[in-house]
Amino acid sequence: GSRNGVYVRILSPQPVYPGDHFLLGHQLMRLDNLGPEDREQPADHDQVRMFGTPVDPAWGKLSCIGVGGQPSDVHYLRGGQTTFGRENGDVLFPNDNFLSRRHARLRMEMRQGAMSVVLEDMASANGTYLRLRGNAVLGENDMFRVGDQLFRVRGIG
């Protein structure tokens, strides 16, 4: 129940839900649903649509969370996956030396009409961390973050 939460390093693909936070290097990200302000504006009374660059519809958005909890950047999620990295990917953070060239990815999957979203680390050097939603059982060598402090579990069993 702490304000900033506890983050556990993911070792396998993990489901993520709207409102979940995760860490990539020094980047704090939040997966969000689309709001009414994020949708295409309807045609006017003459059935004329607003002009703009054609894009695939977004299924969600990812907010970079800045100090104080304010979103600093918003990335709309389109297509089946979005890759994050320092040098290679769909969303880049070129000045974050704690990110790998290709660090992690979000995958959107449709199964029997239901959408699921999965966060996956791509063998990054510093890992990808997902904020806990409740209790977690940790094993030998698991890593977790509390604030800026990084911990590794040792001496179990």
Task: Give the helix/strand layout.
Elements: E1 6-9, E2 14-16, E3 21-24, E4 27-32, E5 60-65, E6 71-77, E7 81-85, E8 91-92, E9 104-111, E10 114-121, E11 128-131, E12 143-146, E13 149-152
Parallel strand pairs: 7-8
Antiparallel strand pairs: 1-11, 1-12, 2-10, 3-4, 3-11, 4-5, 5-6, 7-9, 9-10, 12-13
Describe the structure.
The protein is mainly beta and 157 residues long. The chain has strands at 6-9, 14-16, 21-24, 27-32, 60-65, 71-77, 81-85, 91-92, 104-111, 114-121, 128-131, 143-146, 149-152. The strands form two sheets. Strands 6-5-4-3-11-1-12-13 form an eight-stranded antiparallel β-sheet, with no helix packed on it. Strands 2-10-9-7-8 form a five-stranded mixed β-sheet, with no helix packed on it. The two termini are 28 Å apart.
- Overall geometry comes to elongated
Would you report the number of β strands?
A: 13
What is the N-to-C succession of helices and strands? EEEEEEEEEEEEE
Rounded to the nearest angstrom, the distance between the terminal CA atoms is 28 Å
Arithmetic mean pLDDT: 91
* Rg, Å, rounded: 18 Å
Strand content: 35-45%
Profile the largest sheet: 8 strands, antiparallel
Structural class: mainly beta
- Any low-confidence stretches, pLDDT <50, length ≥5? none
| Helix content class | under 10%
Note the total helix count. Answer: 0
For the biggest β-sheet, the strand order reads 6-5-4-3-11-1-12-13
